[in-house]
Amino acid sequence: MLVDDHPIVRTGLRALFANYDEITVRCEAGSGEEAVGLATKNPVDVVLCDLRLGEGMNGVATTAALRALPNPPQVLILTTFDKDAEILQCIEAGAAGYLLKDVAAQTIIDSVRQAAAGYTVLAPQMAQRVVAGLRKPKITLTSRETEVLKHLATGSSNREIARTLFVSEATVKTHLVHIFDKLQAPTRTAAVQAARNHGLI
Prior knowledge:
The chain is an alpha/beta fold. The protein has ten helices and six strands, in the order βαβαβαβαβαβααααα. Helix 3 (59-67) runs parallel beside helix 4 (84-93) and helix 7 packs across helix 10 (188-197). The radius of gyration is 20 Å and the shape is elongated. The two termini are 30 Å apart.
């Protein structure tokens, strides 16, 4: 099954697989919800799924839902995004592999075959990053710290954040100190970038 919100991508992949007799594209979906519905009615061996699927379920949620089915397919993520946090989220959701869309066509074919056989598919450098990410202690922020970070990401000043959250500027500064410490970030910009890299906002 092909899952991508861009029809042209699905068309290209379908054309690629048409050259290989042992691979049959049984169905395709433009959203995660559609993919889960199709897989529920018509079980497939492998699902090739994008990470970003527009509104609704993203690739992580779609992977988790597909893997929870009675006859779960192997899920390969095929995307343009390679942030460590997103790769980890997909693997934790049950994905059999993670590929970037700039890989060679043969790599996609080989990866589908490997996933169908039950193997995990990750580029060597990506595998190293996943292992390193799993070894790192997870960063956790309080709900209020997350709120402050989100406002920080929009460029809000301490005063604006304080006014929005109905707290004092001193309280905002205290939250920022804790945020900078947890993210090991020296500046507001660095904190926002680190939070994004870790999938916190």
